[in-house]
Amino acid sequence: MKTTVHTADSRGFQNHGWLVANHSFSFANYYNPERVHFGVLRVLNDDFVSAGMGFGTHPHSNMEIITIPLSGELHHKDSMGNFGAIKKGEIQVMSAGTGIQHSEFNGSKEQPVTLLQIWVIPNKMGVEPRYDQLKISDNAIDNEFQQIISPNPNDEGSWIHQDAWFHLGNFTEKSSRTYQVKKEGNGVYVFVISGSVKIGETILGQRDALGITETEHFDLEIDNDSEILLIEVPMNLPKI
């Protein structure tokens, strides 16, 4: 098993006043040639958006975009006619495909909104754009990992155009879990939203991450009051 540690304080940081963003990978004005992507995982932004502020209408194409709210309420509107609000316990998935335009705004005039925005490079280009919003909290079980993203439309959670699986877990008590890699050659990016976890000899704290490759499975020793996101993705970029 090969591992790469990305500590929380090693991420790219930008403060735009209304937006405070931490970038796990090169994004916008932050560029690190050693942190461009983890396989097909291209973006993992940890965003804080001030009350009443947000991202104006802007375009995307040929990217799978997953938004996971951590607090507050995020308002969405896009060129496909979708609009509404998402909050913690829900996820939003967009296949940008041939092209979409969308906006994301903090729905509160008093409270900030925090979220993870994740981009995955798809295995198919030029697909028909699609939007999905799912309340994942209905099927969540305390102290277990819940699948929230897969390649299969008929599987648990939502789906994207890539051989990728996301699992999210809230652990109120100390737990030991083994993660089995779903597809040979895939890697797993472990991101600690809160709390801490030990993998091998590595201890990760809040917003730390660990890239894991060249293994079929690995063990996690999870501390109490921890929220952990597992992102399994192909390590080879698609030849399209």
TrEMBL record:
Its cofactor is Fe cation. Fe cation binds at H58, H60, H102, E104. Keywords: Iron, Metal-binding. Binds 1 Fe cation per subunit. It comes from the Bacteria. The keyword Disulfide bond does not apply. GO terms for molecular function: metal ion binding. It holds the Pfam family Pirin_C_2. It comes from Cloacibacterium normanense. Residues 148-233 form the Quercetin 2,3-dioxygenase C-terminal cupin domain. The keyword Repressor does not apply. Residues 11-120 form the Pirin N-terminal domain. This is Pirin family protein.
